[in-house]
Predict the structure.
Amino acid sequence: MRIRRLSLIVLGTVAPLVACDGLQSADTVAKAGGQQLSVERLGNLLGGAGAPVNKETARAIADLWTNYQLVAAAAVKGDSMASATDADNALRSVYDRMLVDRWQRDFIPKLQAKVDTTQFAQRYAEGAVLHARHILISVPQDATPAKKAELKAKADAIRARVTPATFAATATKESGDPGSAPRGGLLGAFQRGQMVPTFEQGTMATAPGAISPVIESQFGYHIIYRSTFDEARGDVGPQLVQAGIASAESTFVAGLEKDAAMEIKPNAVGTLRTATADLMANLDNTAALASLKGGNFTARDAALLLLSIPQRGQLLSQIAGAPDSVVREQLIKPMVRTELVLRAARASGTQLDTAEVAQVRRSFTAALQGAWNGLGVSPKVLADSVKEPATKASFAAARVETVLDRVVAGQQPLVQVPMPVELALRKKYPASFSLAALDKAVEKAKVVRAQSDSARKAALPQSVVPIPGGADKALPTTPPTAAPAAKAPAAAKAPAAEKKPA
């Protein structure tokens, strides 16, 4: 667990958004700022959009509506949320991250000082980091057996005459790898698993300073020179330092777990899944995911941390569908470790810079004002547009509805309401939500979408010439505009590209 990679976003105390079906009509999905989002309204919004008609998209639109109405409610009151209390409660996650960053500036050098550089040569020889040059005799994929034999003979002939002293010059002249040949076949430093297996195995089987036999891969025939430690020191030294720091960090975190008597609860995965179904409604959920000395790690802690991830949609989908063992090992344990590192930073006595805190508060206020301007409901606009104070709220709410229509239709960019601003608004202004009504809105959206599809197909001109698959499929189409999420869902992260010695 690399400490510097931990996303420490544990928030302060925030009142939950009430999610109680009994507090509102069965035909009301959400209430915020004195306004209501009806099943009919949400169903029409979702059904008329190009996004998938499902519960996740409906919830994203409902959350967006709630945020926008709360922004408008603050504008009507001229509330810039500028007080330290308003800002600091919502910015707890930001302050925690700043605290850990400041603590690490002192802590990481201490770990680095403990790295034993006298063992680097041995660790390099053992393959902790690899460093090599190679000569590639490329083999076309459609090469005949005779051609492959010819190219293999060429590789064997080069191997017979090449020496460590002549390897770079030979590679420049003979190698078919356009990337490394101009550099004398130099591939530089690489980690285990970055190269194709046969190449890595050939490198590992070759002693530093020696040349391998001819190695075959899907790219052709390789002759590998594994650099000596002295030749590789400049490239592999920093990587070995980082590996040493990573090992020290892992040892440190393991010590934190032991000292805290960390124990993941048997029902932790189920508890987390319940919380992720409605994060805002679980901001007061004290069910323990893990027991720790000094205070358990609860569903509330997990909800706060997950809410602070800007692109959390993909992660929440993975939590719902991943095996229990994966959720337990790859999400719950890292979250608990994050909390332990944060506690260590707090216990160190590290303090935040007051100027930095002031800047964060200013940024928070500016973010709210940016949302006001994006929605067209700033206090100045309201004052200029509405003469009767009693009508300000309805005017602002109507503007929000217009913007929401345009955003969902893809006619206007998403107006951002950053998570700290959202949390502050939901603490200060009442809001509620109904999961049962959300389900009804999804069913309504399915009807609207079906009617829209039927009308579109009926309007298509008849083709004079039969077209395979039907006229509808033959017409040019444009990708539908996806309905925005309150926080844009994260795209699935592609696996790291495999470094190939070709």
Q: What stands out?
A: The chain has two domains: 1-125+245-455+481-491, 126-235. Strands lie at 28-32, 35-38, 130-138, 186-190, 215-217, 220-226, 263-264, 288-291, 297-298, 431-433. The chain is about 55% helix and 10% strand.
